[in-house]
Design goal:
The chain contains five helices and five strands; from the N terminus they run βββααααββα. The chain is an alpha+beta fold and 127 residues long. The protein has two domains: 1-30, no CATH class; 32-99, Orthogonal Bundle (434 Repressor (Amino-terminal Domain)). The strands form two sheets. It has a three-stranded antiparallel sheet with strand order 1-2-3, with no helix packed on it.
Amino acid sequence: MNGAAVNANGISRKNDTDASTTRIELRAVKVDTLKALRKVTQHTQDDLAIAMGVGQGTVSRIEKRRDMLVSTLQHYVEGMGGQLQLLAVFPNQPPLSIECLGKKTKTTHRLKERKKKLTGASRQSGP
């Protein structure tokens, strides 16, 4: 039996003929710009600036950029109370969700600690 239920967030779950398979589809509203995203979520540049810990002019410049770091975009979205999700879409494959982008891991922490030790040792062995 194929059935679909849509929750309040616009996420529908379809049960395919195989009971072990559940496909999750997200129905998203598309926006053309970050400014449009901010307006749809009913935030002002001032509100967002306060949430991000930057000035209103910085928010304005971010909204005008055509290219930016993913971390900047993530910070912008989180400043409005959202969560940035990235999907990699390939032909003939289901979309792949990129989960750990930019998140600190134990390995990242260990590498930073090692780098600190190395740079500290090189400063001490100077002339």
